[in-house]
């Protein structure tokens, strides 16, 4: 799902707004390995966990 980074949280977490809902996400392996910097206001693609829809992983920066 596409979303916008709303805030940078401690411990490498980000608050991402997805379709009006707030999701707490961390950076996925491919983005982290290539040192892509994620800033507040960036559009990102987030994978949500099937068990808890308030947690996810940032897969790509748009």
Attribute tags:
mainly beta; 8% helix; single chain; OB fold (Dihydrolipoamide Acetyltransferase, E2P)
Structure description:
The protein has 62 residues and is mainly beta. The protein has one domain (2-61): OB fold (Dihydrolipoamide Acetyltransferase, E2P) (Beta Barrel), CATH 2.40.50. It is 8% helix and 55% strand. The chain has one helix spanning 29-33, and strands at 2-9, 13-18, 21-27, 43-48, 55-61. A five-stranded mixed beta barrel has the order 1-2-3-5-4. The longest helix has 5 residues, at 29-33. 18% of the residues are buried. The mean pLDDT is 92.
Q: Catalogue the unreliable spans.
A: none
Structural class: mainly beta
CATH architecture: Beta Barrel
In angstroms, what is the radius of gyration?
A: 10 Å
Strand line-up of the largest beta sheet:
1-2-3-5-4
End-to-end gap: 12 Å
Number of helices: 1
Strand content: over 45%
Q: Characterize the biggest β-sheet.
A: 5 strands, mixed, barrel
Please name the CATH topology: OB fold (Dihydrolipoamide Acetyltransferase, E2P)
Number of domains: 1
How many beta-strand segments?
A: 5
CATH C-level label:
Mainly Beta
Task: Please bin the fraction of helical residues.
Answer: under 10%
Briefly summarize what is shown:
Helix content is 8%, strand content 55%.
